[in-house]
Amino acid sequence: KQEVTQIPAALSVPEGENLVLNxxxxxxxxxxxxxxxxxxGKGLTSLLLIQSSQREQTSGRLNASLDKSSGRSTLxxxxxxxxxxxxxxxxxxxxxxTPLVFGKGTRLSVIA
Amino acid sequence: xxxxTQTPSHQVTQMGQEVILRCVPISNHLYFYWYRQILGxxxxxxVSFYNNEISEKSEIFDDQFSxxxxxxxxxxxxxxxxxxxxxxxxxxxxxxxxxxxGTQYFGPGTRLTVL
Lengths: 112, 115
Hints:
Radius of gyration of chain B: 13 Å
Number of helices of chain B: 0
Radius of gyration of chain A: 13 Å
Largest interface: A-B, 26 and 24 residues
Shape of chain A: globular
Oligomer: heterodimer
Shape of chain B: globular
């Protein structure tokens, strides 16, 4: 059964700092990995989707990498801003063409 | 930009009552999902729906739950007899393609409170 773990659980950084969020998964037979952002009490906003054949994906200040064989992904946020404060979730299909299994998320606070 | 919408945003109900949560997926999407998130816990999969039938469901999705696509635009989740432990945020999601390649887009959620 797929398990997704995210470290750290919470992170507080000063504005302007670059940071890395980590995600690991136990079953490497995934088709893709998706990173989401969740603001308090709100829905999930898709940030990036990396296909299993890709090693990284970029969108603006965000860069996600995927090492499928070791069961790891990282989300790199460059030049963090207070507006980046949110919970970041990673999710993978539970082996094959099945729905998403989520990590518990990393709660990020960027201090002005 | 097209988005998934959900109504109501907040539903309060008494234990044992039936509730229907509504979702309008993105119009050209073919795959639909319900997830839930109990406060402070992970987002959990409930059910997926494709071609007018359930394609997969989790252990959570027992006989108290049902889904329906009553017309070409709505996708509903019904809980027949709510329990206290059904209190959670319920998210609808849709994707153009199956999970092997498709990004899932989530709605804003319905907060269900069972008293």
